[in-house]
Amino acid sequence: MLIITLFYTYSRSAVLGLIVASALVAIYHGRTILSKHRKTFLLQQVSYQ
Fold it and tell me: What domain range is 9 assigned to?
């Protein structure tokens, strides 16, 4: 019973860690993608004027 409880808590914390890590990676990639889009958008605005 103790092993099952330990495994359950470990798997739950591992899942939480995976979720947090994937969220951080998604936020990081999203920010870089947004900054790239912003740069291209600014370049387009400058070229239009």
Answer: 1-49
pLDDT (tens, 9 = 90+) of the chain, 49 residues, equals 788 888 888 888 888 989 999 999 988 888 887 788 778 877 777 776 6
- Which residue shows structure tokens 């470990």? 10
Q: Tell me the pTM.
A: 0.50
The total of structural domains in the chain comes to 1
Handedness of CA 17, 19, 20, 23 (dihedral sign): positive
Q: Which amino acid is at 17?
A: G
- How far apart, in whole angstroms, are the C-alpha atoms of residue 40 and residue 46? 10
The CA distance from 36 to 30, in Å, is: 10
